[in-house]
């Protein structure tokens, strides 16, 4: 059960918590392919194949396992490797990545996300805590957040306790004073619990919780979170 009296701030996951990430990535892949096709057609065709991308990603990871948490590096290195393998201009990689990244930040929010952010931010300092590389300013929600910590910033990804510790330090609070909210049972909830934080599981898909320990609360949408925290001034639809 949530100890609301102890909560002084909230950390929020981004991908699949505020917006569905895979449709966003799919659109970014299309934008990248469309940009590359007239400039590097062979590499564009290679990157359009999911199996080829997976193979390239494996090579990038093997070359720099220390940067596995840096998704921007991973993506640009993947593009550069594809260009090199296809004997096309590898110098196109930075511009190609920017095309991908711009589209990656054009997200379609869940219906409850923006109203909930407004309500939560009116009562608590919010911190974005993500393994991904979304840019809050480009996405258009920077004004809701006091701070952000990404896997790139922390040098490690969730569920590693060090990224949760970094979030608490950024907020200037003890772990037990911070509530973490996210959709991933292992990365978000178990990671936060191990770091000594309270945790809420955002379960949009009506999945069954299959872990020990339990989250402090389970919600189906962010409107339920606002209601549980008593900061809802009007109902938020899921």
Helix content: 40-55%
Q: Tell me the radius of gyration.
A: 19 Å
CATH architecture of the largest domain: 3-Layer(aba) Sandwich
Let me know the CATH homologous superfamily of the largest domain: HAD superfamily/HAD-like
Q: Domain count, please report it.
A: 2
Query: Beta fraction of the residues?
Result: 5-15%
- The general outline is elongated
Q: Reading side by side through the largest sheet, how are the strands ordered?
A: 3-2-1-4-5-6
Q: Kindly report how far apart the N and C termini lie.
A: 22 Å
What is the string of SSEs from the N terminus onward? Answer: EHHHHHHEHEHHEHEEH
**Alpha-beta content class:** alpha/beta
| Low-pLDDT regions | 234-238
Q: How does the major sheet shape up?
A: 6 strands, parallel
Oligomerization state of this entry?
A: single chain
Number of beta strands: 6
Number of helical stretches of at least 4 residues: 11
**What is the name of the CATH class of the largest domain?**
Alpha Beta
CATH topology of the largest domain: Rossmann fold
What is the arithmetic mean of pLDDT? 96
